[in-house]
Specification:
four-stranded mixed β-sheet, 9 helices, alpha+beta, about 35% helix, Bit1, about 240 residues, globular
């Protein structure tokens, strides 16, 4: 079957996106009090969760269970909201249709897009705030050949906000890749790293033509803020 991702996804103009029905992609990160994940691991896991959903047959096949929802979401603004859960909240979230992706310590569950005012009860009551995370240990340099999602060194964002931003960046990279390149990335388990750029490197990355996330400014940061650059080796060829 031909993949609907064979060609780059056209991105509607902002005024067109705003005029269309608005959807949001829910992500829930597991934050147990005794053992919260490290920040970088949570950021990387959220990005891989978004990619895992985009590559799922329930999305990629024309008659897939989630294909229509994802298409409607991508036609508008690609909003993502990260909420936190622990204990029974996490177990109940796991009973809803979605995909759980694990990192070294992090667990993130991604759900098919929903209307802005259509949150399921067990997700609507989860907290958005309180997702500040510390690193679990030293952060090593990204391995050679690994896609890197570079964070703006001048912005301060909560872990939850940053998880949404890394998800955006991974999605923009996904849209720019060929079908063969997407399959290769999926075969590697969507290997990627999230790192903070130096100020000098950030200026070069913004000017590089690589996928760049500019936030709409609904929460935490000013509209138009550049947050993440997706540096996938295939996009530098």
């Amino acid at each position: 079957m031909t993949s609907p991702f064979d060609a780059p996804v056209p991105i509607p103009a902002p005024e067109d996106r705003d005029a269309r029905p608005q959807y949001v992609l829910p992500l829930v990160v597991r934050l147990e009090k005794a053992a919260p994940p490290g920040r970088s691991d949570a950021l990387e896991t959220s990005a891989r969760a978004v990619l895992t959903l985009l590559a799922d047959p329930r999305v990629t096949e024309a008659d897939g269970e989630w294909a229509e929802q994802v298409a409607a979401w991508e036609d508008a603004r690609i909003r993502k909201v990260v909420r936190r859960a622990r204990g029974g909240e996490w177990r109940r979230a796991g009973e809803l249709p979605g995909i759980t992706v694990t990192g070294r310590e992090a667990e993130v569950r991604v759900f098919p897009p929903i209307p802005l005012d259509g949150w399921p009860k067990d997700l609507a009551k989860l907290q958005v705030s309180g997702t500040d995370l510390a690193e679990a240990g030293p952060v090593d340099p990204a391995g050679a050949g690994i896609p890197v999602l570079w964070l703006n060194p001048e912005l301060e964002m909560s872990a939850g906000k940053t998880m949404a931003q890394t998800g955006h960046a991974a999605q923009l990279a996904w849209w720019r890749l060929s079908d063969a390149q997407r399959k290769e990335w999926a075969g590697a388990g969507f290997a990627l790293a999230v790192r903070t750029a130096t100020p000098e490197a950030w200026a070069e990355l913004v000017a590089s033509g690589l996928p760049l996330v500019q936030d709409a400014g609904f929460t935490e940061i000013a509209p138009g803020s550049c947050t993440v650059v997706a540096d996938h080796p295939a996009l530098r060829a």
